[in-house]
TrEMBL record:
CobQ/CobB/MinD/ParA nucleotide binding domain ranges (all copies): 7-191
UniProt organism field: Methylobacterium hispanicum
UniProt entry tagged with the keyword ATP-binding: yes
Full protein name: Hydrogenobyrinate a,c-diamide synthase
Underlying gene: cobB_1
Keyword ATP-binding: yes
Domain comment, as recorded: Comprises of two domains. The C-terminal domain contains the binding site for glutamine and catalyzes the hydrolysis of this substrate to glutamate and ammonia. The N-terminal domain is anticipated to bind ATP and hydrogenobyrinate and catalyzes the ultimate synthesis of the diamide product. The ammonia produced via the glutaminase domain is probably translocated to the adjacent domain via a molecular tunnel, where it reacts with an activated intermediate.
Amino acid sequence: MSVPGLLVAAPRSSSGKTTVALALMRALARRGLRVRGAKCGPDYIDPAFHRAATGHPSFNLDSFAMGPALLDAVAGHAAAGADLVVAEGSMGLFDGVRAAPSRTGANADIAARYGWPVLLVLDVSGAAQSAAAVALGCATYDPSLRVAGVVLNKVASPRHRRLVEAGLERVGIPVLGALARDAGLVLPERHLGLVQAGETADLEARLDRLADLAEAGLDLDAILACAAGAAPSAAGALPPPPGQRIAVASDAAFSFLYPHQEAGWRAAGAEIVPFSPLADEAPPADCDVCWLPGGYPELHAGRLAAAERFRAGLRAFAAEKPVHGECGGYMVLGESLEDADGVAHRMAGLLAVATSYARRRLHLGYRVAHLVADGVLGPAGTRLVGHEFHYAGEMTAAPDESVALARVTDAEGTDLGFAGHRSGQVTGSFFHLIAAEPA
C-alpha cells in the first residue's frame, strides 16, 4: 500500500518548521492516524522529538549523503506501517550543496523524489503582503515541486493576518493555518540546536499543547487532503552492523546515533547493548564492538573524568576489540577535553588527540572520507559520507597518514587533509557517519 506524505519546509531557517511539524504530528496522532516522522538532512535531535510526538522512530532522508538505493530503503522504513509521513525540512526549502541535480541535500530533492507536496511555513513577523512574494518564489522556483499551501507563523494580530492573506490570495496560494507570535511555543535550545528530547522538561505536556494549537489554528482536514505521493516499500539494504553484539554508549552525553544506522544493525540481527558512561558503566565485556556516539560530553566532562570504572573498562575493552567514537565520542577517546571554563579533564587516553570546547569555532558541513587503513568502518579505501556539526576543536597537531582515520574532502571536493585518529583497533573522528561505500 502506498503511503502519502507531506514536507513541512520554509524559505529559511528559524521560521518555525519544527513547531509546525511537531504540532501536526501530535494532533494527527491524537486523531488515531498512524503518523511517521522524517527529517530531511543530517540532524540527530529533531528525529527524537518526532518520535516523542508520534510514538514511532523518525528517520533522516539525505539526498547528498545517501545513494539512491539507501535513500529509498530508509524512506521505506520511515513509511512502514504508516497512514501518513510528515517530513520536516532543514534550513530553507532549496538550500543544499553544489552537486548533481537531485543530489544536493536540499529538502526539495526529497519532496520531488517521493512526490510529497510542500506545506510552507512562513515567518511573517516584519512582513505583510510581501510574504506572498516569498511564497510565490518558492512555489515557482522548481516546477517538480508542488506547494500545497502555507502556514503563517508569528502572526501579530487579526489585522496582520488579513493583510498577509490578502497578498497570498492575490497569487493563488492557500492559507492552511496560522499560529500567533508566542514565546511559549519555543522549545529550549543549546549550542547544537534544541535541547535533547529526553532532557526537555514536561515534553509530553508541551507536545499536547502544540497539538491543541494545531487543532485551533490549522485546517487539519485540508492539510490531510493535500498529502500525496508515496515512499517506496521498505526493501533495500540499510547500513550493516560493525559487529553482532554492539555496546553503545547511551545517556545525556552520548545520544547522537542516526536512526537508520540503528535500524540497519537490528535488521541484520545485531544486538545493541546500551551502557551509560555517566553512570560509570563500562562497555559489557561480552560485546564484540563498542560504539561511542556523539552528544554533549563537553557539558559533562567532569563526571566523565571521574568515571573510573567506565574509563578503565573502555581501555580494557579496546585492548582486545574494536572501539569507534563519533564527534563527542571521539573527544572522550582522546587524552583530554577542555570544557567551556577552560578546565582540562582527563579522558580515556586511547587516541592521541586533545580537544577543547573553550576555544569555540563552528565546524559544519558534509565530509567525504576515504579510510586510510582497514578497521571497524571497513577496509582501506572505503568511501564514507558523513557530516560535522560541532564547536570543539583539536588542540593537538593534525594527524598524519600514519595515525589518521581518513583522508577527507568537503561536499564540493575541497581537500581537507587527514582527519580523525586510529590506534590499534580504536578509531574516531569528528564526523558522524551516514553512509559507506566499498572501495
